[in-house]
């Protein structure tokens, strides 16, 4: 009787969903644990499959993970009946894990490795050499060691004996690489830890472009060259973001106040025309400005020539290129600030202006004493978000100048108009000698901490934390 009385409340507690914030966090934690467990099972089964079937497709990990979820969700619902009320969160968790958590984890991981185009963990096809397999299928004899004087140097072994390292074997068609663990080397003969699977006729061999952990080496390299990359790029990034916000805000504020005047004739036409720069896709607008700013054939310099002025190297000089970026970004950004101003002005009570007019206040006094103070609350989050956006505004830099023009004494990946994000992009995909993903990941972490610090300063200066405590 006692067992029945004690088990009934326990059974009901498993069926009732938890309440409050703690219940939500518990549900998310349980679902995240289910997803992590399914992913672990999928990874384990796909690894086991690849060991017995080297030609198995990589997407099997997704198939196994999905199968584990199909089996695991009913079992979880039986153990915790209340979790079924929270299954709607599962798709969101999957997308969050795939598109946010996983990229962040990979970025942090690669920042402490030497992962690059040269150290990708894949077979190096550029130094492939002919190879013969012994009759016992345990010894591979290499015809040569390209770019090295010994097998250990060719395979880039961690130890002189190469024990525990990897050699990659190919058949005549070189369609499917087979990785084999090395037990030792003697001359050009490589002894394998296990016989090669039957059916593979070895014709060629190569090494792995292995990547490994290097600790803080990437960060040391960045700060060692801070004067030629990090510091000037960071300074320009802050100047670019701050100047853009100030120019766009001032232009948008002035135009918004002028166009909100109900006595202005044709104000809807003016609004539509001034809204067009924001409506036209950025790619088209920027390419138009590239043509306009062409030093020899651009209409801007043609017009200056007709006025007897010297042609300006808009995109060919570091200083003028920065001015061009600020001007084009003003063209692209002021309609948003103008629209935000008009929307904020519509919330101000007209009685305030009528009372001020009765008291004899001029139009300028009404703007400085009524309009601007009341707009401050609305504009603070807009300005903060605009600064954060332009701090990482990769598009305008890449489309207009591609980081150029080159500047003497600067890194090839951090030219005169590069911001932090474009510097990281150039390092990852356009660095000399191949892609350098590890160094770009380290730059991404530095950008994250810099952005976080600047955001905290902005929030503190704007009193966001004080408002949140209220």
TrEMBL record:
Domain of life: Bacteria
Spans traversing the lipid bilayer: 21-45, 57-76, 88-112, 233-260, 272-292, 319-338, 382-401, 437-459
Ranges in a coiled coil: none
Membrane association type: Multi-pass membrane protein
Keyword Signal attached: no
Residue ranges occupied by any ABC transmembrane type-1 domain in the UniProt entry: 234-458
Function description: Part of the ABC transporter complex MalEFGK involved in maltose/maltodextrin import. Probably responsible for the translocation of the substrate across the membrane.
Name of this chain's protein: Maltose/maltodextrin transport system permease protein
């Amino acid at each position: 009787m006692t067992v029945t009385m004690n088990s009934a409340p326990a059974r009901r507690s498993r069926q009732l969903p938890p309440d409050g914030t703690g219940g939500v966090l518990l549900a998310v934690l349980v679902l995240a644990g289910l997803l992590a467990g399914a992913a672990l099972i999928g990874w384990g089964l796909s690894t086991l499959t690849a060991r017995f079937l080297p030609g198995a497709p990589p997407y099997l990990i997704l198939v196994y993970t999905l199968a584990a979820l199909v089996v695991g969700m009913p079992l979880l619902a039986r153990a915790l009946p209340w979790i079924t009320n929270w299954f709607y969160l599962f798709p969101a968790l999957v997308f969050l894990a795939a598109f946010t958590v996983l990229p962040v984890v990979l970025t942090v991981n690669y920042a402490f490795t030497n992962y690059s185009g040269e150290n990708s963990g894949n077979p190096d096809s550029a130094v492939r050499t002919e190879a013969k397999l012994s009759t016992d299928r345990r010894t591979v004899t290499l015809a040569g060691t390209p770019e090295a004087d010994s097998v250990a140097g060719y395979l880039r072994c961690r130890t002189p004996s190469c024990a525990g390292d990897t050699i990659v074997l190919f058949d005549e068609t070189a369609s499917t690489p087979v990785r084999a663990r090395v037990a030792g080397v003697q001359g050009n003969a490589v002894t394998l830890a296990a016989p090669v699977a039957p059916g593979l006729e070895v014709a060629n061999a190569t090494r792995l472009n292995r990547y490994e952990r290097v600790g803080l080496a990437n960060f040391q390299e960045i700060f060692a060259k801070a004067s030629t990359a990090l510091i000037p790029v960071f300074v320009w990034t802050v100047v670019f973001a701050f100047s853009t916000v100030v120019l766009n805000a001032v232009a948008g504020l002035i135009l918004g106040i002028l166009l909100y005047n109900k006595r202005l004739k044709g104000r809807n036409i003016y609004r539509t025309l001034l809204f067009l720069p924001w409506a036209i896709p950025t790619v088209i607008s920027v390419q138009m400005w590239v043509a306009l700013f062409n030093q020899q054939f651009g209409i801007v310099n043609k017009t200056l020539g007709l006025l007897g002025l010297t042609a300006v190297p808009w995109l060919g000089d570091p200083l003028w290129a920065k001015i061009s970026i600020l001007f084009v970004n003003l063209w692209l950004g002021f309609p948003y600030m103008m629209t935000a101003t008009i929307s904020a002005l519509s919330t101000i009570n007209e009685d305030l202006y009528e009372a001020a007019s009765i008291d004899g206040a001029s139009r300028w006094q009404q703007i400085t004493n009524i309009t601007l103070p009341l707009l401050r609350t609305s504009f603070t989050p807009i300005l903060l978000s605009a600064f954060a956006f332009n701090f990482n505004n990769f598009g305008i830099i890449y489309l207009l100048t591609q980081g150029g023009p080159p500047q003497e004494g600067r890194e090839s990946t951090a030219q005169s108009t590069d911001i932090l994000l474009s510097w990281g992009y150039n390092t990852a995909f356009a660095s000399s000698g191949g892609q350098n993903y590890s160094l770009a990941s380290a730059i991404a972490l530095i950008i994250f901490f810099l952005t976080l610090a600047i955001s905290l300063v902005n929030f503190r200066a704007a009193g966001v934390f004080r408002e949140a405590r209220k």
